[in-house]
Amino acid sequence: NFLTINAHAIFATIIAGTTFALIFYYGSKETHYPFEFLTSLEFGFFISAIDPVATIQSFDFECEFLNFFIVFGESTLNDASAIALSNTAKKLQEQLKHEGEIKYGEAALNAFGQFMIYFFGSLLIGFIAGILISLLFKYLDFHLIPWIEIGLFILASYFPFILCEKIGCSGILAILIEAIVL
Question: Do residues 74 and 109 lie in contact, with contact meaning Cβ atoms separated by under 8 Å?
Fold first, then answer.
């Protein structure tokens, strides 16, 4: 379901973010505090990654197996695309303030590169953490003090999330990959 999940995660996020940005931009024109279009676009991309209704509905036990995996995969990957798009809109704002013009080709390549770093960086951190924690628990003998084993396992499982959030990657994607490796 790779193509279906990516179509929902990337293209649907672009469509939803742009639609929300247009509504927000034109709606703010009617108030005393109108927003610039790039500010609205940044906010639109940022807010379009929120999909709690689809996620909650996928936990319904009568949901089809295929639908569950499409919703789960989309909700995991749309974070990466929403953050990359939101950061690109923010960089376009900065570029417009400093240079007075926007280089759209450079911005598109930057957004693609940022998405790839965000996505694959998260995968790599989760994979490495899963391997290291697996090796740690394989070679250290904790059977005499199980409460230390449980505590260390919880902390070690949380570490990739904290690391990814600190460096600007997806903590959720990292712990998902870590859990698969573990």
Answer: no
Query: 167 and 120 in contact (C-beta within 8 Å)?
Result: no
CA distance 179 to 127: 9
Other CB atoms within 10 Å distance of the CB of residue 89: 22
pLDDT in tens, 137-179: 888 877 778 888 888 888 888 899 999 889 878 787 888 889 8
Q: CB within 8 A of 177, min separation 6: which ones?
A: 122, 123, 126, 127, 130
Cα–Cα distance between 69 and 170 in angstroms, integer? Answer: 19
> How far apart, in whole angstroms, are the C-alpha atoms of residue 171 and residue 130?
13
In DSSP notation, 166-180 reads: HHTS-HHHHHHHHHH
Q: Which two tokens stand for residue 148?
A: 């230390």
Rounded distance between C-alpha atoms, residue 104 and residue 111, angstroms: 10
Q: In the structure encoding, which two tokens stand for residue 49, read together?
A: 């990654």
Residue 9 DSSP one-character state: I
Instruction: From residue 27, give the alpha-carbon distance in Å to each of 19, 32, 37, 85, 90.
Output: 12, 11, 11, 22, 20
